[in-house]
């Protein structure tokens, strides 16, 4: 399926993959998480597209989309609203957000509540959070977790500074290629991602895909969004979905956004279905793709 560019109101080109006409009766919109891109839906997207119109895209600063200085979760909510207005101006919506994509759905509700109330036929909050992200310990003792978070922030700042310096530097006729990580560094990165993001069992191809998506994210955008995620508090926005059939999905072994965060979302939505997958981690679009596809198709069929 060919990818196209959609330009937002502030001039950022978002990479979009769309399988159907704008007047389709139902559109499934897939929003990915922080430092991922639309490839996180590779096990889900084609199987949905056989039955229903599907739109997936790269958030600003991720994948093949453009970037803008200091993006925030609120802006991602506006991006969703603009995508919907341009690509799916009519018909019913099934909104699916993984991790930061779920937070973007909350920002959509906070900033465009009438759109959610009038158009959303179903919503899926997948491995996401409505707040208190600063308190996450990754299943580690709090002092160790705080030290790790400080290290991650510093690494993010360094990546942002490098990205900014590259953007500010004058054009060079022979730019230096980016330095490739050593085999040891690659093994260490993959081991960390395996521990942080996946439960058991996991597929090596999925881990390599996640690592590759991380490798192409824009450093400054990632750092700004990480800061915005730490400030994210959206319990009130979640309540906009109270009249929308909603499912809240999480993995029992999710270290990045523990299951308690999904329980907090479900507590704001008395009629929501909460699903905790035994032994699964954070990457449910890979780890539990079969069940996720079945649930989305069922919701789309009801529309």
UniProtKB/TrEMBL annotation:
Gene3D superfamilies: alpha/beta hydrolase. Residues 28-294 form the AB hydrolase-1 domain. One of its GO terms (molecular function) is hydrolase activity. Residues 151-183 are annotated as: Disordered. Keywords: Hydrolase. InterPro entries: AB_hydrolase, AB_hydrolase_1, AB_hydrolase_fold. Signal peptide: none annotated. Pfam families: Abhydrolase_6. This is Alpha/beta fold hydrolase. It comes from Actinokineospora guangxiensis. The lineage of its organism: Bacteria, Bacillati, Actinomycetota, Actinomycetes, Pseudonocardiales.
């Amino acid at each position: 399926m060919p990818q196209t560019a959609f330009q937002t109101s502030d001039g950022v080109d978002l990479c979009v993959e769309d399988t159907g006409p704008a007047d389709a009766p139902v559109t499934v919109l897939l929003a990915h998480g922080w430092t991922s891109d639309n490839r996180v839906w590779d096990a889900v997207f084609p199987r949905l597209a056989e039955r229903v119109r599907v739109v997936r895209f790269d958030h600003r600063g991720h994948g093949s989309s453009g970037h803008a200085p200091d993006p925030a979760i609120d802006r991602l909510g506006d991006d969703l609203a603009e995508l919907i207005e341009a690509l799916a101006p009519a018909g019913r919506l099934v909104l699916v957000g993984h991790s930061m994509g779920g937070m973007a759905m909350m920002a959509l509700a906070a900033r465009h509540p009438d759109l959610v109330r009038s158009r959303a036929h179903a919503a899926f909050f997948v491995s996401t959070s409505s707040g208190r992200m600063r308190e996450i310990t990754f299943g580690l003792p709090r002092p160790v977790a705080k030290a790790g978070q400080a290290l991650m922030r510093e690494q993010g700042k360094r990546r942002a500074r490098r990205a900014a310096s590259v953007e500010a530097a004058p054009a060079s006729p022979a730019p230096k290629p980016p330095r490739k990580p050593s085999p040891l560094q690659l093994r260490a990165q993959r081991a960390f991602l395996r521990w942080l993001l996946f439960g058991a069992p996991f597929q090596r191809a999925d881990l390599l895909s996640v690592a590759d998506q991380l490798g192409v994210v824009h450093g400054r955008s990632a750092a700004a969004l990480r800061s915005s995620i730490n400030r994210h508090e959206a319990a009130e926005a979640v309540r906009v979905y109270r009249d929308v059939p909603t499912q809240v999905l999480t993995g029992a072994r999710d270290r990045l956004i523990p299951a308690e965060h999904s329980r907090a979302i479900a507590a704001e939505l008395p009629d929501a279905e909460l699903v905790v997958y035994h032994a699964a981690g954070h990457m449910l679009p890979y780890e539990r793709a079969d069940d996720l596809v079945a649930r989305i198709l069922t919701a789309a069929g009801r529309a």
